[in-house]
Amino acid sequence: MHTGKYANLYKTNDYKKELGKIKDSAKLCNDLGLKCHAGHGLNFENVKKIAEIDQVVELNVGHFIVGHSVFVGLEKTIKDFMIIIND
């Protein structure tokens, strides 16, 4: 599921309607027997609310992970990300 619109709206704190659409879509995926993967524009600031959606089984965050790891290292980036999504 494409989360780019949510990610852009998150910056303006006007994301709740889009998050609701994502939750509804994830539930529909589950009801249809599909596995829901979500990603695009997700980062440390906005991923938590997507990770909390029970039906989302995978987060596609590779672009952010690689980009951020250039500055602080891959291991630290992954550890920090895991803390956020598992908190």
Written description of the protein model:
This protein is mostly helical. It has one domain. 60% of the residues lie in helices and 10% in strands. The protein has five helices and two strands. The chain has a two-stranded parallel sheet with strand order 1-2. The chain is globular and about 40 Å long. It starts with a helix and ends with a helix. The mean pLDDT is 96.
Describe the protein's topology.
Elements lengths: L3 H7 L5 H16 L4 E4 L7 H5 L4 E5 L1 H11 L1 H13 L1
Parallel strand pairs: 1-2
Low-confidence stretches: none
Q: How many β-strands, per DSSP? A: 2
Helicity, as a percent range: 55-70%
Q: Ends: how far apart? A: 22 Å
Could you list some keywords that capture this structure?
60% helix, 5 helices, two-stranded parallel ribbon, 2 strands, 87 residues, mainly alpha, single chain
Quick structural overview:
With 87 residues, the chain is mainly α.
